[in-house]
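2024-03-11 09:14:02 DEBUG pipeline.ingest accepted 1 chain
2024-03-11 09:14:02 DEBUG pipeline.ingest length=60
2024-03-11 09:14:03 DEBUG pipeline.predict start
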Amino acid sequence: MTGPKKSVIGMEVEASIKRFVTSLPERYKVAIDSEVVLNGCILEVNDDNGRAMKIERIKA
């Protein structure tokens, strides 16, 4: 996942919460005033059984 750290799926928090609380349409506004981050993981998977053999966290 990438995007602004202080956001809800990349959008301003206030608009997202207002939309959730009131159930009314609210125009999403892109959160541009926050540090951008990247989070994820890399999996090494066993082809025979589909299980994860190694998981490496990425946080940048």
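2024-03-11 09:14:41 DEBUG pipeline.report The first strand starts at residue 2 and ends at 4.
2024-03-11 09:14:41 DEBUG pipeline.predict end
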